[in-house]
Specification:
By secondary structure, the chain is α/β, with parallel strands linked by helices. It folds into 2 domains: 215 residues, Spore Coat Polysaccharide Biosynthesis Protein SpsA, Chain A; 70 residues. Helix content is 51%, strand content 15%. The protein contains 10 helices and 8 strands. An 8-stranded mixed beta sheet has the order 7-5-6-4-1-2-3-8, with helices on both faces. Strand 1, helix 1 and strand 2 form a beta-alpha-beta unit. Helix 9 packs antiparallel against helix 10. The two termini are 17 Å apart.
């Protein structure tokens, strides 16, 4: 088993959580649940602080700790994919977990039991969001429900804490898209899966690097990577507005034939603003899909590993 841990500017929390990860791995090895060759793979996503130096120190102190470094910051999903693709040739299963210590490390025991029962993918799912602020909890729940409404196949309240077998990763490697959203891509691969519930705790040290802007960007990536339904909604909206406009035109002609004046400059202005806003919004959504298609055609590498500790 390899534990894959994406890191970005985590010098404050990494010395704390690395001890927790290492204690868990060595404990599982001692209990005979995983092999001695099991490793922890820290993936530095182009950090600007001492994260890479700490990873190097950890690898020198204990052979169970390994590290790779991206040539530049490419985002959490790309860093996680780099770690999974790096690990798949060395182990039977990988478990990805965030570096901040919020995910319950003891849920790994249940994940291993589910894998032994024949599950190739085991999702870590939050049992509640009581530790989140009202705003974060509300927007997260809205995000998952919206993805479901749009036809995206995701697991509710699941982030990136999961067990994935090397068999699944071999097939995941065939998915070559540049716009990566692993929470939706892994369910697309298929195979037998299940979920494990756990309580998410407050961050052990440091501060979160996921700003509202990054969260919104991840939401857009997830939606546009997994579903084309927004374009069909735009088409339907355009059809309805066209019918409404045609009905208004006929009503105006009938009133004109009766000698009645067409009412309201204000209504005309408001309708113009409304339709203009709808058009700009529709162009923005379609433009997002076109832009992502443009990026896909470039076939740029999704990650570049510049350094390794092994």
């Amino acid at each position: 088993m390899w534990l894959v841990v994406p890191c970005y500017d985590e010098q404050a929390v990494l010395p704390v959580t690395s001890e927790i990860f290492l204690a868990k791995i060595t404990g599982l090895i001692a209990a005979g649940k995983i092999a001695e060759k099991s490793r922890i793979l820290f993936v530095d996503d182009g950090s600007a602080d001492r994260t890479w130096e700490i990873i190097n120190e950890l690898s020198l102190q204990d052979g169970h700790c390994l590290g790779i470094r991206q040539s530049r910051n490419r985002g959490h999903q790309n860093a996680l994919l780099a770690g999974l693709m790096e690990a798949k040739d060395y182990c039977d299963i990988t478990i990805s977990i965030d570096c901040d210590g919020q995910d319950d490390i003891n849920a790994i025991d249940q994940m291993l039991e589910s894998y032994a029962d024949g599950c190739e993918v085991v999702y870590g799912v939050r049992s509640s969001r009581d530790s989140d602020t009202w705003f974060k909890r509300s927007t997260a729940q809205l995000f998952y429900k919206f993805l479901c409404f749009m036809g995206a196949d995701t697991v509710y309240n699941h982030a990136d804490y999961r067990l994935v077998s090397s068999k699944v990763l071999e097939h995941l490697a065939d998915y070559q898209e540049v716009n990566i959203f692993l929470r939706g891509m892994i369910p697309l691969v298929g195979f037998k899966s299940t979920s494990v519930l756990y309580e998410r705790r407050p961050r052990l040290a440091g501060s979160s690097h996921y700003s509202l802007k990054k969260t919104m960007g991840l939401a857009v990536d997830g939606l546009t990577s997994l579903s084309a339904k927004p374009i069909f909604i735009i088409a339907g909206m355009g059809g309805l507005l066209g019918l409404a406009g045609l009905g208004g035109l006929l009503l105006t002609l009938i009133e004109g034939m009766r000698g009645q004046a067409a009412a309201g400059w204000a209504l005309t202005i408001y309708m113009g603003l409304f339709l203009g806003g709808i058009q700009l919004l529709s162009l923005g959504i379609i433009g997002t899909y076109v832009g992502k298609t443009y990026l896909e055609t470039k076939r740029r590498p999704r990650y570049i590993i510049s350094e390794r500790t092994y």
